[in-house]
Amino acid sequence: MDQLSLISFPIAFAAGFVSFASPCVLALVPGYLSFISGVPADQVEQRWKSVIRPTLAFILGFAIMFSIFGASAGLLGRSLARSRDTLNLVAGIILIVMGVAMLVLPRLGWMQGDRRIRMAKRPETLVGASLVGAAFAAGWTPCIGPILGSILTYAAPTGSPLAGALLLFVYSLGLGIPFLLAGMFLTQTLSASRWIRDHWNMVNAIGAGLMIAIGILVATGDLERITQQLSRIGFAGL
What are the backbone angles phi and psi of residue 94, rounded to the nearest 5°? Predict the structure, then answer.
C-alpha cells in the first residue's frame, strides 16, 4: 500500500478546521449544539456539562461516516492500482480543480449561505445524537464539498482502505474538536467566528493554495517521492 507521511495528517486536520471555519458551518454550530443536547442556545455555555456528551456522540457519528468515505476512496484507489501513474495524474488534477473551486465559489455566493436544521424531533439518546452526526456527514452542505472532496481525492491514491479511513478520521478531528470546544466556550467561539468571517477570504485562500500545491505534487508524482524520502529518515507513515 502507498505510504502516508506524517505531513498528510496535519493537512487532513487543517482541512477539517477550514471546513468548520467556513461561514455556513459556523452558522450551524449553536443550533446543532442546542438541537442534540436539548439545551437552549443561549444557555449552552452555562450548561456545558450537559452539552459535552451528546456533542461527543455527534462527533463520533460523523467521524465514523467520514472514515467509511475514506475507506471507500482507498478501496477505489486499490482497484485502480495497476494504473497508478494515471490515478495520480487524475487525482492531482481533481485536487487542483477543487482548490480553484475553493477560491471561486465564495465569490459566486456559494460556501457562504446559512443552513438551518430541519428535523422534526431532537435526539433523546446518545445513539440518536450519533445518528444526527452521521446524517450531517452524509448530507454535507455545499460549503464543505470542495474541501471534503479534496481530502477524499487525496485518500484515493493510497490504495489502502485503512489509510483512507485514518486520513478522513483525522479530518473529522479537525472538524470535531472545534465543535467540542464550542460546546464549552460558545461565547469565545462566536467571537472567534466573527474574526474568521471578517478574514475568511484569507483563510480560504491559504487552504486553497495548499490544496493546489498538493495537487501539483500528486499529479507529478513528487508527493510519493517526498513520502519515500521521509520514510528513509524515520518519518514513516502508513
Answer: -65, -40
pTM: 0.75
Cell numbers at residue 215, please? 495537487
What percentage of the chain has pLDDT greater than the value 70? Answer: 76
For residues 61 and 118, give the distance between their C-alpha atoms in angstroms, rounded to a whole number. 18
54 pLDDT band (50/70/90 cuts)? very high
Phi, psi of 114 (to 5 degrees): -80, 130
Distances in Å between the alpha carbon of 53 and those of 49, 109, 133, 229? 8, 35, 13, 42
Q: Which amino acid is at 214?
A: I
Q: How far apart are CA 130 and CA 36, in angstroms?
A: 9
| Close Cβ partners of 85 (under 8 Å, ≥ 6 residues apart) | 221
As to burial, measured by CB atoms within 10 angstroms (0-12 exposed, 13-18 middle, 19+ buried), residue 213 is middle
- The answer to whether 105 and 111 have CB atoms below 8 angstroms apart is yes
pLDDT of residue 176: 92
77, 87 contact by CB (below 8 A): yes
- Give mean pLDDT, residues 49-64: 92
Helix, strand, coil shares of the chain, percent, nearest 5, are: 80, 0, 20
